[in-house]
UniProtKB/TrEMBL annotation:
Keyword rRNA processing: no
Gene3D superfamilies referenced in this protein's UniProt entry, alphabetically: Histone, subunit A
Biased composition (Low complexity): 1-16, 85-102
GO cellular component assignments: nucleosome; nucleus
Family: Belongs to the histone H2A family.
GO MF: DNA binding; protein heterodimerization activity; structural constituent of chromatin
This protein's name: Histone H2A
Amino acid sequence: METGAKAPKKAGTAGRRAGGGPKKKSVSRSVKAGLQFPVGRIGRYLKHGRYAKRVGSGAPVYLAAVLEYLAAELLELAGNAARDNKKAAAAAAKEPKAGTTKSPRKSPAKKAADA
């Protein structure tokens, strides 16, 4: 055999690994980018939405990162507002409401003295 010659391929092995071992598990682009938002789905929406004739491979990753950041900020602000509202509601529950307080009762000794 010559040094530059390749071994002949078997029929029907296109797309498989040369070693013949099990297929390697695929890793999503979201996992590669370290994101929770679906990069593939966002890319599909960009392509099917006809925003541009061509969509670069980095555009859906960047958009997913921006959307994830905005969602995290929004959730943090909502959580802070909910916590503050809970504190305010608890403080308001402890204080008596205006106009609903009953007049103080007179003790039996005062009632007898008034009569």
